[in-house]
Amino acid sequence: MKLKSLILLGVMILVLGMTSIAFGWSLEEAAKPYAGVTLRFITETTPPSYWVEEVVPEFEKATGIKVIVERQAHPHLEEKALMDFASKTGIYDVFNFDYSWTGKYVKAGYIEPFEQYMDNPALVNPDNALDDFYPRMWEGTMWDGKAYGYPFDSVIQYLFWNKAVYDKYGVAGPPKKPDEWMDTMQKLNHPPELYGTGMMAKRHLSVVCEWLCILWAFQGEFYDDNYNVKFNDENGVKATEFYKKMAEFAPPGVTTWTWDDVSTALQQGTVAQSVQWDENYGSMENPEESRVVGQMRYAPVPSYGDPVSHYGGSSLGIPTSSKNKEAAFLFIQWATSQDIQLRGVGHGSSPTRMSVYGVQELRDKFPSFAATDEAAASTGWRPRIPEWDDMVETLALEINSVIAGAKDVKSALDTSAAKVEELLKTGGYK
Amino acid sequence: MEKNKTKTIIAIIIIGIILVVNVMPFLWLILTSLKTRLDIFAIPPKFFFHPTAKNFISAFTKRHFLPMFYNSLIISASTTLLSLAVGTLGAYSLARFKLFGDKHISFWILSTRMFPSIVLVIPFFIMATRWGLHDTRSLLVIVYTTFNLPFVVWIMRSFFEDIPSDLEKAAMVDGYSRWDAFWRVILPLSAPGLVTTAILCFIFSWNEFLFANVLTAAMAKTVPVGIRGLVTSRAIEWGEIAAVATLQVIPVLVFTFAVQKYIIRGLTLGAVKG
Amino acid sequence: MSLKKLSVFQRFGFWISSTETKFKWALLLPTIILLAIITVYPTIYAFNLSLSDYNLARAADTLKGYIGLDNFRNILKDPTFWSSLRTTITFTVVVVVVEFFLGLCIALILQGTVTGSRIVRTFILLPMIMAPIVVGLTWTYLYQSEFGLVTFILRKLHLMSYATAPLADITSALPALMVVDIWQWTPFLIMVLLAGLEALPTAPYEAARIDKASPFLVFRKITLPLLQPVILIVLVLRIMDAIRVFDIVYALTEGGPGEATDVLSMFIYRNAFYLWGIGKASAISFILLYIIMIVSVILVNLLSRAKQTV
């Protein structure tokens, strides 16, 4: 009898304890042990980062945890991050990592698996619905079945086109197929005030991303399921010739442009359209910076097959060298929460939650929302293997050389293809 | 006489052109530091505008440049002192005495000055990460000594060779020890050399970028790295870059003005007397 | 008096010479030891790294560790390495030649005339005392495609079209970079050559004037040979610095567009800190070191021979 009641008592206490934790969770309470800590957040120079920096004082006020936001552009983001991780100096506590880097950082042991934090009732906010994240974006944080971060920004690349400019020249938009697209570029090209298209053709990750969209639009493939390189086949050559021709209708200097420069050009109305990351929708509508408020429209990249878009999203993770991992987790949870993402719409936030994209008001106000929502399910992924960096290195060089007029398409593609084949072989994929 | 006059006029014109070409970029930098964002992005470029101190203020309040200036100052001063202390002694030894293998030693010291920094950056980075020295000021002090020390040796040697050795002999006859002869007689006489060398070492360290970029992160970051860090593609903050760059160059200008007389000698490692 | 001194020295001759030895080595050893530790050790360390496939972005178990001379073999087979080497050589030759000729001509003209007050000299030296990274960023700003001052002037002079920008065009990027280096270092050559010219003895020139020799002959037979040591010093310094150039490349182009400005230092940096191939980058840096050693030995030999003939 006594044993039974003891067990019952124990179970009751356990249940009460757990429910009290569940009901009693608040950010302030959870952060108490970490008050006074300073977190350093290294991130890309993307609109969502600017938004987070704007609202960070709220987090600091609620928790007493100070957050320093350090922004770096590609590739300096990795330059600084890897310097810290490799030296285990522990400078950075929160790391904004691209989904294509997940494998690389996990394998090198530089980022923390999130299980231990997601299982910790003291840290986890029970209102934080993890299934609210787009499945594809959630997948981007995972490697080998484990999650290493929370999706932070939804960056999908598709076509930004300026309806006012299209209307002005009597061109119907948006183009649905590449040949139509080239046609619009030609018709809308009136240098030097207006150019038919922008390009992010710098010898940089940017040129590879944009080129991938065109490759897929021509139904080309990077490599097939057996890791046979395919991008230098017929479709790849056609796609790259198309990409090269685009430069005829683009402003001077596109060989030094990354997505940031494209954003500026779209904002200033210097280009009629451009392939661009959806997170820049906010800056198009910002009256302080943009001359094209209300004019931008969004569509998939014109394609001969299925609609094409390119995923470039990133997540927030915790470096293994960080000295404030729990506090970092609290920050990450807060920064990717529904509240912060929702309020940030139009201020730079690029939400990764389906619920935010479902808000009708926002869909009406921001035409890109519908486009992103649709694209999110089928968006194209680039390779996530660690060897991707070296592949980018050769592709960026070769494609940039083609656009700059220094190389012809076939030899550039073949050179890269040979290097990629080699990388796949030494990496053990073939 | 006439030939000389025309030559002088041509010379003045040429000096004038050189001055304009050399100073213009810096002048443009100063102007930019005083412009608002709209003025900076103006096409065509504006020469007349309403100046603002906003860039300077935000550089220190928003971008936290004060600790970086402090770091640059401490590091440059420390490496200069260290290099000067050790190198001057070595220079005196090479200048005055015949040593076994001194030609080879001299050449070796000179060769370290010719070392490409990029060769040393990689091992220093790996070593620093393994020994926990990454992002510390002491590390940079040691690393900068790799080029400051040989520099000190070569220049001070040239200055010491200019001082007649009879002076030491006279001093020693008067009862001075070798060390005292050096410390109390020769060293004060080589003061211009010491000052020049100190200033040049300081300038090299103050301006250094590659090592600082790789070996510092947050705590020991120096001004050159901080300036480069303001280049974050999205609408580069040229105003702030110009403001900090202007401030960074001013001490160098002042120092150069001070040691102007010996600077050519310094920069040619003592070979050419300016 | 002097006899007394001599005998004093002679009497204590042996004792002095041994303390002299101790003294001179005591002064020199700290320099040698310190320098050895901070340069020799890292160099050996770097060589070790160059024999491995160490990569900071890969997991330790995917790396092979020691791979012998494989890095060197692969680099010598890599066309991007050779193109980088060509770019570096082109850059070095052009900037040094231009800086030298400009410097010499201007120094000859300024010789014997007023060189200006201290302030003037300081501002003439301004480009080379500015931090190279600041010089690089300033010129990036001047070359900027939309609002850059230099781009604007070039376009007004019809030297550059509106369809391109100095740093974006594959044919103009390297020249644009060279202009920055020439802007930075020509003052150095002017000042050094000027100092050298003004230190020349007047006797040979007097003799030439009496013999009514032509200015060209004077230049070729008197000035040039007498100036040789100074010329060589300045060429050695400039060539060494030009081969190693980094800061301005990093600020202006990071090696692009394409491979147009991919000098060796930038190539190494990219391999080390963007691609994290530490082993490979170390190997390339050793090749660069080897090149510099060869060049410096050749030049220093020329220098010492020139010193002897004068």
UniProtKB/TrEMBL annotation, chain A:
<protein>
    <submittedName>
        <fullName>Putative ABC transporter-binding protein</fullName>
    </submittedName>
</protein>
<dbReference type="Pfam" id="PF01547">
    <property type="entry name" value="SBP_bac_1"/>
</dbReference>
<dbReference type="InterPro" id="IPR006059">
    <property type="entry name" value="SBP"/>
</dbReference>
<dbReference type="InterPro" id="IPR050490">
    <property type="entry name" value="Bact_solute-bd_prot1"/>
</dbReference>
<comment type="similarity">
    <text>Belongs to the bacterial solute-binding protein 1 family.</text>
</comment>
<dbReference type="GO" id="GO:0042597">
    <property type="term" value="C:periplasmic space"/>
</dbReference>
Automatic annotation (TrEMBL), chain B:
<feature type="domain" description="ABC transmembrane type-1">
    <location>
        <begin position="69"/>
        <end position="259"/>
    </location>
</feature>
<comment type="similarity">
    <text>Belongs to the binding-protein-dependent transport system permease family.</text>
</comment>
<feature type="transmembrane region" description="Helical">
    <location>
        <begin position="107"/>
        <end position="127"/>
    </location>
</feature>
<feature type="transmembrane region" description="Helical">
    <location>
        <begin position="9"/>
        <end position="31"/>
    </location>
</feature>
<dbReference type="GO" id="GO:0055085">
    <property type="term" value="P:transmembrane transport"/>
</dbReference>
<feature type="transmembrane region" description="Helical">
    <location>
        <begin position="139"/>
        <end position="160"/>
    </location>
</feature>
<feature type="transmembrane region" description="Helical">
    <location>
        <begin position="181"/>
        <end position="206"/>
    </location>
</feature>
<keyword id="KW-1133">Transmembrane helix</keyword>
<dbReference type="InterPro" id="IPR050901">
    <property type="entry name" value="BP-dep_ABC_trans_perm"/>
</dbReference>
<dbReference type="InterPro" id="IPR035906">
    <property type="entry name" value="MetI-like_sf"/>
</dbReference>
<keyword id="KW-0812">Transmembrane</keyword>
<dbReference type="GO" id="GO:0005886">
    <property type="term" value="C:plasma membrane"/>
</dbReference>
<protein>
    <submittedName>
        <fullName>Trehalose transport system permease protein SugB</fullName>
    </submittedName>
</protein>
<dbReference type="Pfam" id="PF00528">
    <property type="entry name" value="BPD_transp_1"/>
</dbReference>
<dbReference type="InterPro" id="IPR000515">
    <property type="entry name" value="MetI-like"/>
</dbReference>
TrEMBL record, chain C:
<keyword id="KW-1003">Cell membrane</keyword>
<comment type="similarity">
    <text>Belongs to the binding-protein-dependent transport system permease family.</text>
</comment>
<feature type="domain" description="ABC transmembrane type-1">
    <location>
        <begin position="85"/>
        <end position="299"/>
    </location>
</feature>
<keyword id="KW-0472">Membrane</keyword>
<keyword id="KW-1133">Transmembrane helix</keyword>
<dbReference type="GO" id="GO:0055085">
    <property type="term" value="P:transmembrane transport"/>
</dbReference>
<dbReference type="InterPro" id="IPR035906">
    <property type="entry name" value="MetI-like_sf"/>
</dbReference>
<feature type="transmembrane region" description="Helical">
    <location>
        <begin position="89"/>
        <end position="110"/>
    </location>
</feature>
<keyword id="KW-0813">Transport</keyword>
<feature type="transmembrane region" description="Helical">
    <location>
        <begin position="273"/>
        <end position="303"/>
    </location>
</feature>
<feature type="transmembrane region" description="Helical">
    <location>
        <begin position="182"/>
        <end position="201"/>
    </location>
</feature>
<feature type="transmembrane region" description="Helical">
    <location>
        <begin position="222"/>
        <end position="240"/>
    </location>
</feature>
<feature type="transmembrane region" description="Helical">
    <location>
        <begin position="25"/>
        <end position="47"/>
    </location>
</feature>
<dbReference type="Pfam" id="PF00528">
    <property type="entry name" value="BPD_transp_1"/>
</dbReference>
<feature type="transmembrane region" description="Helical">
    <location>
        <begin position="122"/>
        <end position="142"/>
    </location>
</feature>
